[in-house]
Specification:
The protein is α+β, with helices and mostly antiparallel strands. It has helices at about 1-20, 40-50; strands at about 25-35, 60-65, 70-75, 80, 95-100, 105-110. The strands form 2 sheets. A 3-stranded mixed beta sheet has the order 2-1-6, covered by helices on one side. The chain has a 3-stranded antiparallel beta sheet with strand order 4-3-5, with no helix packed on it. The structure holds zinc ion.
Length: about 110
């Protein structure tokens, strides 16, 4: 399950921040998931408490937000919304739209103690 390795990365980032910014506990984590990132919100929620156990984010509240997919059409050069990877341009139907947002997961906000 790749959600677990994503969360292990998040945990390492939190630990690095804790050292550089001098906090010891995280009470709330907001993760932004790109709609095109293939990350399952349910799987992420399920894995979160297990991965964060015995870390500074143990028992932290997890908030998930979804970032819409966005791309730049190679034909009409418009920025368009993409619902699924490899969707054609919604404006002109051109099949090649380069993804510009919504294909990753990132830490959006943290509440620390
Ligand atoms: Zn287009």
């Amino acid at each position: 399950m790749h959600e677990v390795s994503l969360l292990e990365n998040v945990r390492e980032i939190l630990q690095a921040h804790a050292i550089s910014q001098n906090f010891t506990k995280v009470s709330k984590v907001t993760l932004e998931i790109g709609a095109l990132s293939c990350v399952e919100p349910d799987a992420l929620r399920f894995a979160f408490s297990a991965v964060m156990k015995d870390s500074l984010a143990e028992n932290a509240e997890l908030i998930l937000t979804i970032q819409q997919g966005q791309g730049l059409c190679e034909q009409c050069k418009q920025s368009v919304l993409i619902e699924h990877l490899y969707d054609p341009c919604i404006l002109c139907g051109h099949p090649f739209v380069s993804v510009t947002a919504g294909n990753s997961m990132q830490i959006k906000d943290l509440v620390v103690i």
